[in-house]
Amino acid sequence: MRFNLKATAALAALTIGLAGAAQAETTIRVAHVDPDDWQTSKKGAAAQIFKNIVEGESDLKVELFPAGALGNEDELVAQAQEGLTQVAIVSGAMSKVCPAASVLDIPYIFSSAPVAWDVLDGQFGKDLAEHCLDETGLRTLAYGETGFRNFTNNTREIKSPADMKGLKFRVQPIPLYLEMVKSLGGEPTPIAWTELPNALSTGVVDGQENPVGTIYNNGLHKLQKYMTLDGHVYGADFIVISDEFYEGLSPADQEVVSKAARIAGTMGRAIQEWSTADGVKKVQEEGMQVYSPTTEEIKAFADAAQPAVIDYLRGELGPDAEWIDRLQTAVADTQE
Asked: What pTM was estimated for this model as a whole?
């Protein structure tokens, strides 16, 4: 009897130990390329609030890998697909594995951030997430925001597409951006991000385009005199998780993770909007001239840029081109 009691106690201790070890192994690795500072970084803020909620409401552990610690966005997406990283917060990289997501880059498709939020949080966003899940094995838990992109230059104030004629703009090496700038009358020049400050300083290009927060936080406003708040492209963050990992969680943990991601996306949006407003104020205080186009002027930009980009996307997407029409319908319904 004494032996049986000791054996039972040992077995119980071993079982508890193994359970504890298994529990400790349930760790969610969250990676992104932005700084970790929650006050200025939308992805940083989203990741930290995600961690706080998940760890506060479950036994799951969350490890954060900010500032590209695990690689660039393309690498983070691949790692999530391979199960090496459980959660990735990415923007442009998503359209490379789920081409339908590129419709979100149609210039001037969203008239404001709230319109974009309503579309992405509504049926269109849910359908796109389901489609991308089928394409990639990554479940989109929520959408965040990287902000609207705006043109800056060091030559003249831009109020219409005609003002862009002859100006060289640094763009990302993405065909959609090349088509957009060409259709607006500018000369698109693909240049690596790391080479941009030197290109602006030496006059290799006259201008560039980025969200306001990116422009201010990287000191680009010190190299450019004019900014036009045309908001030509709205950047969405995708908070994605390996679906295989997600399906392996208990229903209760799935609920916590999903809830945390939705709040994280909202937090990221709030930080990005604050960063934009604060950035506009600061660049003006430091001497930059900022112009906010009228509704009629934005329409002129849209009329010039959208047809060429949409034609390009239809050719690239093939059967997935239906997502262009679905997005246009969702935006129209939301605005009504």
From this structure: 0.90
